[in-house]
Fold this protein.
Amino acid sequence: MAVEKPECLPERLLAQEWRDILDVHARTMCELDRELHAFGLGASDFEVLDLLAQGRDGDDRGDGGKDPYGSFRVQELASGIHLSQSALSRVIGRLEKDGLVARGMCAQDRRGVRVEITDAGRVRHSEVLPIQRAVLARMLGSGRGRDAVRP
Amino acid sequence: MAVEKPECLPERLLAQEWRDILDVHARTMCELDRELHAFGLGASDFEVLDLLAQGRDGDDRGDGGKDPYGSFRVQELASGIHLSQSALSRVIGRLEKDGLVARGMCAQDRRGVRVEITDAGRVRHSEVLPIQRAVLARMLGSGRGRDAVRP
DNA sequence: ATGCATAGAATGCATTTGCATTTAATTCAC
DNA sequence: GTGAATTAAATGCAAATGCATTCTATGCAT
């Protein structure tokens, strides 16, 4: 039988690349989650809050100025976040329960829901944003390629 | 490959890098999970099965060995997989229930558990390995740096 | 207008996961 | 040897997530 030698086949490279991604993702996400939980937020919660706080990257409103710049359709949020529609709905529900966002009806299409960040939400966001950046700097900035596995 | 561009502000660069990682991870993991579910496996299940199938040093030594080359302590698996100890225990439980792995006592330390892959497990692994490789090739092989975000 | 198909969002349910705790076996101090 | 402390793995429990379904609102054809 043909013996497999430790050559660098593209499949092996892909597998290794995938392992690296899994590793960085798991460790960073774990850290992020733990640090954010001290502020009553999960990683997904922060992602949504971050999108709302940044307000369409701050330049494009697209609503004619009628709505606050922190207002999004749920669909818009869904396209920017890797979460199922149902999960996103529940995240918004949690954030709303905590008073960080508010749901409102969409005037143009009353099936839709407009989500906007509240003042409390902005405060919370500005609190946790440095935390997130610190975690990213710590986990992504330093060793990332192969040796990141070693604590 | 090299996507580093040391021109922007480091915080924004890190945030973008993290978004890229989140994106690739989410889409690849989602695909992987969906495809593997057709074979009754989740992504974590496959990871464990893959470790067991590849043997200790990542390469299948010899072909006919019935020796415990597919035998791992749970702890060893834990160090190679980003999963909590409890979750790993349950993954092993599922795999065992499906007859893909077998648990046995560890002679040296009877607190420990030895996990080894079964013949059925090897068959299943050889079935799904090409699937995984195909998904990885499809999701990682093509554009990955920045344009992978656009569908 | 009326009825039927479709879109946006919420909810029921099952699965997976992590944290905290428990159970069992080993090691250490005495 | 006996008992406390420690380690390996399993389990109770709660939270998060995805799929399928449901509910409401819209659009389109008649």
Q: What stands out?
A: Chain A touches chain B through 24 residues (CB under 8 Å). The mean pLDDT of chain A is 82. Chain A has one domain: 12-143. Residues 33 and 42 of chain A are 6 Å apart (CA to CA).
